[in-house]
Backbone:
């Protein structure tokens, strides 16, 4: 049996873990300010964070919060942890930045640091580097979070032994509209807490909607 | 490898059709004819709308694209990318027994940037830049009612799409999966790769000591998968037997220096396919011809014990077609399997990687029963897929 | 030269998103790359090439030259002083 052993959500300047608010900023906060404040709040020491684009920053903080104090990474070999994410607008935020940099032919300086983030799977790469995860990874694009599809893919990956555990979810960051929903899926582990949620389409859907602000 | 479905035999996944469209032609036959004659589609591009200074790349003929498409639908109503995809799907389906309208058929689209040129113009609804919107449009065009799956995972998208299709069929979710993918040659992408200084100053030279970078190619490809053997291409029964992806966890743009990430993908794919290194007949490398990529692949092949296996890169023929690469190059793999022929690694003259490899240096007839297609991409991702001929006893 | 060095430090901090680095943290002669440096990587090296062209009009044709040019703030400042277009 596969369980969701931890989950988190980031949206509307609020971060919640397992349904409980963990960090929040009141008022109308810009994403860039909010995510930086979250970085400081969680006392992360990872200077590369500031080179990331918004999508990767969102994924990064979500993963930091998700993995914190779970011991998850100690339970698995790097190649046995999967990263299976969904997203809606790809890397549109960075795409627009890059497009703007090449619009004016008299001021034509495309930046490699911007261009590299015009691939939406880079956020997965950043997480893999940070947490030394080497297993199966795919980024799917869909109009909205598709619990049914993600369930099928993750379930099949477990069943065929391709993964022993995974980070899964929805990471979307476009047009100042951001929402991250990330979860850890593992085969039943004896945590002695009895708080784990069985990995089903219904439970995924419920947890996803819980985290939207 | 755990498998809780031991009592239930997973279906085989057969190839039921294919197409490729590159600078070398709009059909698979046309493409392979050019490959046989060692003709490359890479040329000097002087279109200032793509980049201020000339650069070497492999574009599709716009004229031919529009002429071909005009026979299908109104060219003004579809974007360049959509026209390419629709043409490729049409051609692949024409020669396949799979029904695209069947509810048991799924479409998977693979692309890195899709309609990215729409950011520069406003002829079309901006919503069309969303890849899921493009996929939806394609499914509607062909009358398929399932929500298509879209994979955008840098240069391994194509291989991942084939693997995902295989898995969904083996899991019994669909009987048929139409895997299609493409990318256009755009200023967006050319300028980006130029900023990375990764474009070659001439036609690229995979694995060669003098290689200096890649050429971007424009293209799209389609591979149709089915679990129904009566729908399979019975001129030669080929199966997709294994696939795996991995991450280097090293750098977001620089290839791993050890190749251990790609090795994981190769190992996982071959293990699933049940094929040993000594029995693999051919490897189709990613072979972009950048200094670090080719070296990394060579190391990965060595780790996997595949130094002896004939290996080539096709990117010196039609460039690096990004989201289409894994599919287009797999289509050539299928041809190699069918016709027992291996294509040259054009541009390779002097060995330029630190590991001994068996690089294919000319058009070579050889019995090919199994083949591994591999790919790596930005974000440190890697993927490998195995194709095998079904030996009918 | 000192003025250029000060300006370069600020430009590098801004362009390379070195958020928690202050100009006074950057030693004029210390290596920018590698151990004990600013933790710069291959993308930063490419960004410095863009910075050179954008801010100083100097185009580096061979990226391999970058190793010596970008060794330290001082080597970079000296290169700019020598090659800057009038």
Residues:
């Amino acid at each position: 049996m596969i369980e969701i052993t931890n989950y988190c959500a980031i949206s509307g300047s609020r971060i919640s873990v397992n349904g409980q608010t963990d960090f929040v900023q009141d008022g109308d906060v810009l994403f860039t300010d909010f995510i930086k404040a979250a970085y400081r709040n969680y006392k992360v020491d990872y200077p590369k964070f500031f080179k990331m684009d918004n999508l990767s920053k969102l994924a990064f903080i979500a993963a930091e919060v998700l993995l914190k104090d779970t011991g998850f990474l100690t339970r698995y070999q790097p190649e046995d942890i999967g990263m299976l994410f969904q997203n809606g607008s790809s890397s549109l935020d960075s795409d627009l930045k890059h497009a703007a940099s090449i619009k004016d032919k008299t001021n034509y300086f495309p930046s490699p640091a911007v261009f590299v983030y015009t691939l939406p799977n880079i956020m997965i790469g950043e997480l893999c580097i940070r947490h030394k995860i080497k297993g199966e990874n795919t980024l799917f694009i869909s109009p909205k979070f598709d619990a049914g599809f993600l369930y099928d893919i993750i379930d099949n990956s477990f069943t065929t032994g391709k993964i022993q555990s995974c980070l899964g979810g929805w990471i979307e960051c476009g047009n100042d509209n951001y929402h991250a929903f990330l979860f850890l899926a593992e085969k039943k582990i004896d945590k002695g807490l009895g708080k784990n949620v069985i990995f089903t389409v219904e439970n995924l859907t419920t947890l996803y909607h819980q985290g939207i602000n | 490898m755990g498998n809780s479905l031991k009592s239930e035999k997973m279906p085989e996944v057969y190839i039921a059709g294919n197409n490729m469209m590159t600078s070398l032609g709009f059909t698979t036959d046309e493409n392979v004819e050019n490959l046989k004659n060692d003709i490359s589609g890479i040329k000097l591009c002087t279109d200032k709308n793509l980049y201020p200074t000339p650069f070497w790349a492999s574009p599709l003929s716009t004229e031919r694209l529009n002429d071909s498409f005009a026979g299908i639908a109104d060219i003004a109503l579809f974007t360049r990318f959509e026209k390419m995809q629709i043409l490729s799907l049409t051609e692949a389906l024409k020669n396949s027994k799979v029904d695209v309208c069947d509810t048991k058929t799924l479409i998977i689209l693979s692309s890195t940037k899709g309609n990215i040129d729409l950011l520069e113009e406003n002829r079309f609804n901006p919503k069309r830049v969303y890849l899921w919107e493009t996929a939806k449009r394609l499914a509607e065009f062909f009358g398929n009612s399932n929500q298509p799956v879209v994979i955008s995972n840098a240069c391994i998208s194509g291989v991942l799409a084939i693997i995902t299709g295989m898995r969904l069929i083996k899991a019994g979710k669909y009987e048929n999966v139409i895997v299609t993918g493409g990318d256009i040659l755009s200023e967006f992408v050319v300028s980006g790769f130029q900023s990375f200084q990764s474009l070659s100053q001439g036609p690229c030279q995979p694995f060669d000591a003098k290689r200096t970078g890649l050429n971007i190619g424009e293209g799209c490809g389609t591979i149709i998968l089915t679990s129904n053997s009566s729908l399979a291409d019975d001129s030669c029964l080929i199966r997709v037997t294994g696939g795996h992806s991995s991450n280097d966890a090293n750098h977001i743009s620089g290839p791993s220096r050890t190749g251990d990430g790609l090795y994981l993908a190769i190992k996982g794919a071959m293990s699933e396919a049940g094929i040993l290194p000594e029995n693999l007949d051919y490897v189709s490398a990613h072979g972009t011809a950048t200094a670090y990529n080719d070296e990394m692949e060579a190391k990965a092949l060595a780790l996997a014990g595949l130094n002896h296996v004939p290996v080539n890169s096709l990117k010196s023929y039609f460039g690096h077609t990004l989201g289409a690469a894994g599919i287009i190059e797999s289509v050539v793999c299928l041809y190699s399997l069918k016709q027992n022929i291996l294509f040259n690694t054009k541009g390779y003259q002097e060995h330029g990687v630190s590991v001994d490899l068996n690089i294919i240096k000319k058009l070579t007839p050889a019995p090919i029963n199994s083949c591994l297609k591999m790919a790596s991409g930005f974000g440190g991702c890697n993927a490998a897929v195995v194709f095998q001929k079904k030996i009918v006893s | 030269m000192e003025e250029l060095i000060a300006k370069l430090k600020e430009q590098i901090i801004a362009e390379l998103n070195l958020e928690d680095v202050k100009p006074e943290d950057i030693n004029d002669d210390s290596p920018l790359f590698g151990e004990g440096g600013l933790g710069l990587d291959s993308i930063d090296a490419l960004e410095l090439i863009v910075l050179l062209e954008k801010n100083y009009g100097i185009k580096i044709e061979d990226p391999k030259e970058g190793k010596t040019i970008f060794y330290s703030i001082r080597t970079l400042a000296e290169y700019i002083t020598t090659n800057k277009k009038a």
